[in-house]
From TrEMBL:
Protein name per UniProt: Homeobox-leucine zipper protein REVOLUTA-like
Gene3D superfamilies membership: 3.30.530.20, Homeodomain-like
GO biological process: one example: cell differentiation
Higher taxonomy: Eukaryota, Viridiplantae, Streptophyta, Embryophyta, Tracheophyta
Localisation per UniProt entry: Nucleus
Residue ranges occupied by any Homeobox domain in the UniProt entry: 19-83
Species annotation: Nelumbo nucifera
Entry keyword set: Coiled coil, Differentiation, DNA-binding, Homeobox, Nucleus, Transcription, Transcription regulation
DNA-binding region per UniProt: 21-84
Molecular functions (GO terms): DNA binding; DNA-binding transcription factor activity; lipid binding
UniProt record similarity statement: Belongs to the HD-ZIP homeobox family. Class III subfamily.
Length: 842
């Protein structure tokens, strides 16, 4: 490999002169390049000592000066960087080329649709002008109504191929033609980094969604993934292929029975009896299309027959075209009639929304394929050394277990328990399931008992689902009981449901979130939650009382129209084995109505800032109804809660009573949170209280600055700040991290400016769950303890430089900390303030 041309060459050996000037180029022999490449593979950036050692150990490099060796490694790293950049640009270029092709096809389709609409418009105008009223009505009906084809019957196998071919034609007309009036999905903008081009139906029978995207997998692999619907469609309970035979033209026809979970306890589940046709087109494209068949076909188990409603799948499927340079362009169409008549009227928008179908089926399929593609290419790295397939299995098990709990199918062994006089919650029991059936039998002690589930659904008004789920995730102590979590965790660990022997434990209020993985666009997070507990007796102080939960959180993006928000968790052993038994519980919030108007900036993640204050202060601090902005969030959603508890037979009644009481307390807490984050209690003005018992924000800012000036003899902010709002604004945007903590036996933070929240990687609400000692390392805690008396006596102190920890476990360095008492009056200490100077992440 020639790095440059040498000024001269020695004929005897072909090597360069030992005493070349340092500025001259060097031509390396093949042997020298091979030796350097071996070192580069081990260490791309060797130190000076390593380069000297290389020259000593490798005789063929003895005539090369160390500086030339250094230059070779610099050039080699530069070439590697250029190669990677060139590869990245080629990938981006392929994506852009494919996306451009998709957009051109979409443009052609829209032009055809416009031409068709113009023709129909002209035709209708002519009929209105020249015909009588009766004739006009008849002609209009013939134009605007689409003949509804009856469901196809599969009783005659000879006719299945004609049904398949007709399904193929109708599917292609939806995927690339104008059979459906498609409009762009709100909030989904196409681009090289987007999931794809997503559209929903407009004025069409049933609900339909379509997506087009580029995936770096081959067509056969994509078809294999998509046909395995339970692996990516979380609402698919079961898919069974009853009959499969070749179509005679290289294709394959399958008769399929599929069951789909109900999303709430207020509606029955759905099932489908369909024909699926897989074939190759003349242009090399692979097609998988599907539609419902008439006739009874396959059906659910007789025990669960009343829990299902037969729905219809209109021609749907996948068109997969190979791409030049690798990968595929995929078109996905989902077109369903979910029989909305069979659900309560309040839930019908959920079954009549194309946006919901787009999020739960169409976009989910495209995202799953992209996820598999990135995992296959090695672009995705997950935590705790787990393989992606293992983590996907955990997510699927959590979701499936939660859906099973909500639906409580009779053929799974669920039955209803008699109520205790109130009908606010439903209690179901399953004695066919216990810890030995949901776990590896070799790791579990089989005990007589079962699983008990308490569930409820309720309607929420003007509560953003994403915001509510984020709060439930970040502030578990606001609604959960640590002792109940400890009971469930103990049951999972030991296989014993010793309810009466449960020992009381104090929950410290802090939780540590350890990320495991996330999907491509981070719409779903998989994480382990560690809840820190402390024994109340000295004898058990030496025992670890921490609880570990495996948790998935999804739907936290408020801009995702029609997306379902979920928080599902299950106790798990701290060793986190792959075959851990899981008993999921959690929350699901589904929007029923589309947002009627555009949201303002207050509906961002920062809206959780004053939520804790709203919870305690109550209606007195809420904005008057007349002050609610005209473009505030205004929508309904349905919340479903399901909690599962293991039990032994002789403790069934005790566990049922405890479970009812616990779930009712959770419902009460969630309703309190929901009232606080509804528009009337959302985003109070700056002058309102920042936390329970604290002064108004403007007053607190004044106290912080005034106390700093009194103790340190200097101004914390610019001296030109006069009015309170200016003081608060400058304090909020101050470059140093300023935090206030309460004067309690276990000091917790009550306020932080923006830099403080960034340093701790939290929000103002989550801040109140963080104790002062948790953020310092060992040396920082010692410095704080040694100077704490000085702070209380003289009112201030200087803490030396050190390291602290964010809530995400990242190390943060700081040069110095100013600590001082914040005085609310002449002799009244309101809180302690800390200013972390020149902080940065390590």
């Amino acid at each position: 490999m020639a790095m440059a041309v040498a000024p001269h060459r020695e004929n005897s050996s072909g090597s360069i002169n030992k005493h070349l000037d340092t500025g001259k180029y060097v031509r390396y022999t093949a042997e020298q390049v091979e030796a350097l490449e071996r070192v580069y593979a081990e260490c791309p950036k060797p130190s000076s000592m390593r380069r000297q050692q290389l020259i000593r150990e490798c005789p063929i490099l003895s005539n090369i000066e160390p500086k030339q060796i250094k230059v070779w490694f610099q050039n080699r790293r530069c070439r590697e960087k250029q190669r990677k950049e060139a590869s990245r640009l080629q990938t981006v270029n392929r994506k852009l080329t494919a996306m451009n092709k998709l957009l051109m096809e979409e443009n052609d389709r829209l032009q055809k649709q416009v031409s068709q609409l113009v023709y129909e418009n002209g035709y209708m105008r002519q009929q209105l002008q020249n015909a009588s009223v009766s004739t006009t009505d008849a002609s209009c009906e013939s134009v605007v109504t689409t003949p509804q084809h009856p469901l196809r019957n599969a009783n005659n196998p000879a006719g299945l191929l004609s049904i398949a071919e007709e399904t193929l034609a109708e599917f292609l007309s939806k995927a690339t033609g104008t059979a459906v009036d498609w409009v762009q999905m709100p909030g989904m903008k196409p681009g090289p980094d987007s999931v794809g081009i997503v559209a929903i139906s407009h004025n069409c029978s049933g609900v339909a969604a379509r997506a087009c995207g580029l995936v770096s997998l081959e067509p056969t692999k994509i078809a294999e993934i998509l046909k395995d619907r339970p692996s990516w469609f979380r609402d698919c309970r079961n898919l069974e292929v009853f009959t499969m035979f070749p179509a005679g033209n290289g294709g394959m026809i399958e008769l399929i029975y599929m069951q789909m979970y109900a999303p709430t306890i207020l509606a029955p589940a759905r099932d489908f009896w369909t024909l699926r046709y897989t074939t190759n087109l003349d242009d090399g494209s692979l097609v998988v299309c599907e539609r419902s068949l008439s006739g009874s076909g396959a059906g659910p188990n007789a025990a669960a027959a009343t829990q299902f409603v037969r729905a219809e799948m209109l021609p749907s499927g996948y068109l997969i075209r190979p791409c030049e340079g690798g990968g595929s362009i995929i078109h996905i169409v989902d077109h369903l009639d979910l029989e909305a008549w069979s659900v309560p009227e309040v839930l019908r928008p959920l079954y009549e929304s194309s946006k919901v179908v787009a999020q739960k089926m169409t976009i989910a399929a495209l995202r799953y394929i992209r996820q598999i593609a990135q995992e296959t290419s090695g672009e995705v790295v997950y935590g705790l050394g787990r393989q992606p397939a293992v983590l996907r299995t955990f997510s699927q098990r959590l979701s499936r277990g939660f859906n099973d709990a909500i639906n409580g199918f009779n053929d799974d062994g669920w039955s209803l328990m008699s109520c205790d006089g109130a009908e606010d919650v439903i209690v179901a029991i399953n004695t066919t399931k216990n810890m030995s059936t949901i776990a590896n039998a070799s790791n579990t002690l089989t005990l007589p008992g079962g699983i008990l589930c308490v569930k409820a659904s309720m309607l929420l008004q003007n509560v953003p689902p994403a915001l509510l789920v984020r709060f439930l995730r970040e502030h578990r102590s606001e609604w959960a009981d640590f002792n109940v979590d400890a009971y469930a965790a103990a049951s999972m660990k030991a296989g014993s449901y010793a309810f009466q022997g449960l020992r009381p434990t104090r929950f410290s209020g802090s939780q540590v979130i350890m990320p495991l993985g996330h999907t491509v666009e981070q719409e779903e997070l998989l994480e382990v939650i560690r809840l820190e507990g402390h024994a109340l007796t000295q004898e058990e102080a030496v025992l670890s009382r921490d609880i570990h939960l495996l948790q998935i959180c999804s739907g936290v993006d408020e801009n995702a129209v029609g997306a379902c928000s979920e928080l599902v968790f299950a106790p798990i052993d701290e060793m986190f084995p792959d075959d851990s038994p899981l008993l999921p519980s959690g929350f699901r919030i589904i929007p029923l109505d589309s947002k009627t108007c555009e949201k303002q900036d207050v509906l961002t993640a920062n809206r959780t800032l004053d939520l804790a204050s709203s919870l305690e202060v109550g209606p007195a601090t809420n904005r008057a109804a007349g002050d609610t902005p005209s473009n505030a969030y205004n929508a309904r959603s349905v919340l479903t809660i399901a909690f599962q508890f293991p039990f032994e037979n002789h403790l069934q009644e005790n566990v049922a009573a405890m479970a009812r009481q616990y779930v009712r307390s959770v419902i009460s807490s969630v309703q309190r949170v929901a009232m606080a984050i509804a528009p009337s209690g959302l985003c109070p003005p700056l002058g309102q209280k920042l936390s329970p018992g604290s002064p108004e924000a403007l007053t607190l800012a004044h106290w912080i600055c005034q106390s700093y000036s009194n103790y340190f003899g200097a101004e914390l902010l610019r001296t030109d700040c006069q009015d309170g709002e200016s003081v608060l604004k400058q304090l909020w945007h101050h470059q140093d991290a300023i935090l206030c903590c309460s004067l309690k036996p276990l000091p917790v933070f009550t306020f932080a400016n923006q830099a403080g929240l960034d340093m701790l990687e939290t929000t103002l609400v989550a801040l109140q769950d963080i104790s002062l000692d948790k953020i310092f390392d060992e040396s920082g805690r010692k410095a704080l303890c040694s100077d704490f008396g000085k702070i209380m006596q003289q009112g201030f102190a200087y803490l030396p430089s050190g390291i602290c920890l964010s809530t995400m476990g990242r190390h943060v360095s700081y040069e110095q900390v100013f600590a001082w008492k914040v005085l609310a009056g002449e002799n009244t200490v309101h809180c302690l303030a800390f200013s972390f100077v020149n902080w940065s992440f390590v």
